[in-house]
Amino acid sequence: MPQSVAGPEIERLIQLLARMPGLGPRSARRAALQLIKKRDTLLGPLAEAMRVAAERIVVCSSCGNVDTSEPCTICRDATRDPSTIVLVEDVSDLWALERSGAVNARYHVLGGVLSALDGVRPEHLNIERLVERASDPAVKEIILALNATVDGQTTAHYVTDALRHLGLTITRLAHGVPVGGELDYLDEGTLSAAIRSRTAF
What we know:
Blueprint: H1 8-18, H2 25-37, H3 39-56, E1 58-59, E2 66-67, H4 73-76, E3 81-88, H5 91-100, E4 105-109, H6 127-134, E5 141-145, H7 150-163, E6 169-172, H8 188-196, E7 199-200
Parallel strand pairs: 3-4, 3-5, 5-6
Antiparallel strand pairs: 1-2, 6-7
Helix pairs in contact: 1-2, 5-8
């Protein structure tokens, strides 16, 4: 077993960084070293920002977005089109669509997708709240902006069945989203084209 070359505090920093998506043990060591080298300009401010975020970030009870206010900034935005709700799997997908500027609607974050393999059932997702929000007479369309994976498509079918009795227009993203692709990895132009070319589901 290789011997540790740093104190336990630094090793803990490395281990925590290694848990981040896209960072393995080697990348985490490089990131930790960079933070340590720039202790005053990077490590200190980052630690403070993380402390404040941990204290103030909440999950919006209406749509499932994360923000420092309840309800979230998007739900409080009176300029948003109240007739359309964009359904996404995760907050990262909401952020990706917002970066694209392709839609000025309201959102609903499911918090995942149905997955028999992972034991994710309908009651584990934010579906019940979606049906409540979709029952508002102002809502006319639900855009299914779910990832084009098998689990994403299974979830889309389930949600469509759950909303069918409301008589809403249900559309899904079209051109530009590859099968097996995930929204968070797509560029803004692709997302804009997918929103503009949505089709009935």
